[in-house]
Design a protein that fits this description.
Layout lengths: L1 H42 L2 H23 L4 H31 L6 H23 L6 H30 L3 H37 L1
Helix pairs in contact: 1-2, 1-4, 2-3, 2-5, 2-6, 3-6, 4-5, 5-6
Bound molecules: zinc ion (ZN).
The site of zinc ion (ZN) has 4 residues, from α2 and α5.
Length: about 210
């Protein structure tokens, strides 16, 4: 009995620590969205835009996770469904922007791209380090950690693209990275929608019986 009480206490402690870390990561992502979205337009870079929208999607996820931590499966599945749909829309937006930038042969500002890409890398590495302790938690905690890690890899791609833009004096490295990020976002969007709709089906069939 004493042992179980101890376990429950440890679990609660872990959840409250997770909550604190989520708040910090939420603020980091929201600030980076504002900074990166503004500079993406200034630098005319579609890969920065794609990355900024990812910061927006992630801060939405962290904010909503804080709200629904411990609530019903139906609620969490509905939230996941919304996230899946918005990621799909963001992916389509980036495909369209990349297409117009490519047809206008726009060359982004490589220096701004590299600098902001590096700031984004630091933001994601800090987030991943903060979340690292919780990576072996439930599927939700794990997916959040994986997301930060993948985003850090994406930032390295932006930095490489920035040097490519500078060396080749062409927008193509920027377009290629943007298309890759939009594709990843679209694929993830389908996976999230699929899982969320099967969870919602399970919930409503349980309610029906
Ligand atoms: Zn992300």
């Amino acid at each position: 009995m004493a042992c179980c009480d101890h376990d429950i206490h440890e679990d609660e402690l872990k959840v409250s620590k997770f909550r604190t870390v989520l708040w910090i990561v939420f603020v980091i992502n929201l600030v980076m969205f504002v900074v990166e979205f503004a500079t993406a337009f200034f630098a005319n870079s579609v890969s920065l835009q794609a990355d900024a929208l990812d910061f927006l999607a992630d801060s939405m996820t962290y904010g909503v996770t804080l709200l629904v931590l411990g609530s019903s499966l139906r609620m969490r599945a509905s939230v996941a469904m919304l996230k899946g749909i918005s990621m799909g829309v963001l992916g389509m937006w980036i495909f369209a922007r990349t297409f117009t930038n490519a047809s206008d042969a726009i060359i982004p500002l490589a220096g701004v791209m590299g600098t902001v890409g590096f700031a984004a890398l630091i933001a994601n590495v800090v987030s991943a380090l903060l979340l690292y302790k919780f990576r072996s938690g439930d599927s939700n905690m794990r997916s959040i950690w994986l997301c930060s890690r993948n985003d850090a890899i994406g930032n390295v791609a932006i930095i490489i693209a920035a040097s490519g833009v500078f060396a080749m004096n062409s927008g193509w490295p920027d377009f290629v990275v943007a298309i890759l990020m939009a594709t990843l976002s679209t694929v993830a969007s389908f996976q999230i929608i699929k899982q969320a709709s099967s969870e919602l089906k399970t919930v409503s069939s349980e309610l029906g019986s």
